Amino acid sequence: MRMAAASDTIYSLSSGGLPSGVAVIRISGSLALSVCASLCGGPVIPRLATLRTIRSRNGELLDQGLVLSFPAPASFTGEDCVELQIHGGRAVVGRVLDELGDIPFFRHAEAGEFSRRALANGKLDLLEIEGLADLLSAETDMQRRLASEHARGDVSQLYQSWARRLTHARAMIEAELDFADEDDVPGSVGASIWRDMTHLKAEIEHHLDGAKAGAIIRDGYRVVISGPPNAGKSSLLNALAKQDIAIVTDIAGTTRDVLSVDISLAGFAVKLFDTAGLRETSDVVEQEGIRRARRIQADADLILCLSDTPDGFLIPDNPHGDVLKVATKIDISAGSWDRSGAHIFISVETQDGLQTLLEALVERFPKRAAGEVLALPSRRRHADHLRQCATALNSAIETIDLDIQSELLRQSSDALGRITGRVDVEDLLDVIFSEFCIGK
User: Fold this and answer.
1) Within a 10 A sphere around the Cβ of 200, how many other Cβ atoms?
2) What 3-state class would DSSP assign to 188?
3) pLDDT at 185
4) Dihedral sign, Cα of residue 275, residue 211, residue 120, residue 29
5) d(CA 427, CA 434)
6) For residues 255 and 246, what is the distance between their CA atoms, to the nearest angstrom?
7) Rounded to whole angstroms, how far apart are CA atoms 27 and 47?
8) DSSP-derived secondary structure letter, 317
9) Are the C-beta atoms of residues 353 and 345 closer than 8 Å to each other?
10) Segment (H or E) for 175
């Protein structure tokens, strides 16, 4: 079996699952345009959809469909590309793919290989590619908006503008170091350069303030439903999800593991977690469920502490996120409650208070996501590199040695470059592209 080579022409089904009304097969590489001649009856006009009969190299009729060609470099990958839009039956698609696989130096694409070639050919940077991956997996409107900002290069342009300012500052410092005796070199770069660097540090730190909002939009707002046994946790999960996810009984300890469901609320993805009832128990399985409940509480953005009695709230120590005390079953216990005893009063049975609870969730969503533009860091690695950039920049501002300042500005610039893939990111590529489907 021949080893895969970077010079191979690659192909793959790039549309959705089969069967479908139309299937799109993408081909990219130096031999891509030869497909038009060998299988489609001759070349086609670039970027003009052309109806062609697709035949095997032995003349067997395979299908009839639209053929588009995109000569390099004006294509998604920067290479010669061809797209075959054919009927989406499994037999049709399988037969065309088999025919392509029999052509010398053609092979099936690996996961994310089209996008990886786009990166290698300078058509996209790493930030845009991550945005494209997030756009393909977006399930809510906020996720779509955030991913679009990254995929179309808006955030990359912001980082590139910062990188240019850092490069300019380094150039001025190097000029002062190397040509201090020349009349046309300013005696000091401090007045203008360091004023701009101070402004830049403030811009980066303000941008970093949106990292939590970006992570919540991309990964979801994590809400843990907690409380003692039979407080109504599973019933609330089912009510918010509008489906029977958790088993509901009057038997204490029914829920023994963490159950989760995703819902969309005000454009955000909300991850709801139902947990085991918190109590002292000798049951080994239930003990493990309680341990997992406490562990997931530690990462929650919001903990809903449920109780059906005024003295039943189990508030965690030093919670990572916000805490809401929710009084449950008020249809049968309203008389026993002081209205100051909980933040929200609900009854799953009568639906009382559920809308108030949902509104309380929406109020806690990131305010930075309310604007038209979502130029926010969306991944932990983005935030990590931005912090490294800001830290090095701050150190450069505080020191007075020009040689050290120049080196610190280089470190700051390199940290920005690692976000877009311009500096030292080879070890990240396999991880990032593994998130892609085969045809992308």
Assistant:
1) 20
2) coil
3) 47
4) positive
5) 13
6) 8
7) 14
8) S
9) yes
10) helix 154-178
pLDDT tens-digit series, residues 162-187: 988 998 888 888 777 665 555 554 54
Q: How far apart are CA 291 and CA 163, in angstroms?
A: 46
Cα separation, 219 vs 373, whole angstroms = 19
- Give residue 188's pLDDT: 52
Host H or E run for residue 222: strand 221-226
Of 144, 138, 131, 129, residue with least CA distance to 433? 129
Can the peptide bond before residue 366 be classed as cis, meaning omega within 30 degrees of 0?
A: no
**3-state SS assignment for residue 298:** coil
- Radius of gyration of the chain from its Cα atoms, rounded to whole angstroms: 29
**Domains and their CATH numbers in the chain:** 9-109 (3.30.1360.120), 127-210+375-433 (1.20.120.430), 218-365 (3.40.50.300)
**Mean pLDDT value across the chain:** 84
| Residue entry with tokens 């469909």 | 65
Q: What are phi and psi of 179, to 5 degrees?
A: -130, 40
Lookup: tokens for 27: 């081909």
DSSP string, 99-129: HHHTSTTEEEPPTTHHHHHHHHTTSS-HHHH
d(CA 436, CA 198): 39
**Strand order in 344-345's β-sheet?**
259-265, 268-274, 221-226, 302-307, 322-327, 344-345
**Rounded distance between C-alpha atoms, residue 68 and residue 385, angstroms:** 40
The span from the first CA to the last CA of the chain, in angstroms, equals 24
Tokens standing for 36? Answer: 């038009």
This prediction's pTM = 0.79
252 pLDDT band, cuts 50/70/90, is very low
Q: Give the pairing of strands 259-265 and 268-274.
A: antiparallel
- Taking 70 as the threshold, does the pLDDT of residue 291 lie above it? no
CA 376 to chain centre: 11
**For residues 109 and 439, is the Cβ–Cβ distance under 8 A?**
yes
The rounded distance, in Å, linking the Cα atoms of 147 and 218 is 8
Residue type at 304 in one-letter notation: L
